[in-house]
Amino acid sequence: MTEKLWYLSQISIFEALSDEEMAEIDQLNAIEHFNHIPKNTIVQTPETVREGLFFVKEGKVRLYKLNAEGKQFTVSILGKGNMFGSLNAFSLGTSRVYIETIEASFICSMSELKFEQLMLGRPQLALKFMKVLSDQLADREEQLEQLAFNDLRGRVIYLLATLSTRFGIVQDDYVLIDLPLSHQEIANMLGVTREAVSVIMRDLVKDGAIRTGRMSVQLATSLLPNSHATQALQKS
To answer: Residues 40-43: contacts with CB within 8 Å, 24+ apart?
Structure first.
């Protein structure tokens, strides 16, 4: 498998396809490749949205909004294999946000016409895409429920557990979240003040629930939502 096809096979909606199907998609030139995008580059603003689907091949991007006072609120962090964007028929909910790389990244895109051609001719890929959309909706519903019914401590733990299952590296009885996480960034994700987050983080450290370093957080594996979550973690 060529390097290009290997990259495509790591993107979530393509991972169930055979090598032959991947080669066929490659021959259609459905995927357009961007150059390397440096860290801390604004990929999109609410005013510069482009139609199409975009896939994170390597790296991580942060989606955020600004309130009237200019305060940032992080909507999501997408890693390798995730996608964002919108077409006339549907949207992934990313058209009204800022998107910024939080580490050096490679991003590729697919036009609406190419996407329609792929879906019409490949029902297996269409089903896979529908599952990706369904999973994203389920994740957002759970996030809203956690934000609505948990106190701040519970919301912080839920956020750290979610990030651990997506970006975690197991280290003994803790999971290192492979993201630069300051108290301010955690506050941005929860829509609260940095001071409030700092109080909770100090308590969690005292309880042994987390370990912290400079811009890093490790969560105790006992706080992961279920035993299956550890299967999704990277191994150190």
So the answer is: 40/100, 40/101, 40/102, 41/100, 41/101, 42/98, 42/99, 42/100, 43/99, 43/100, 43/101, 43/107
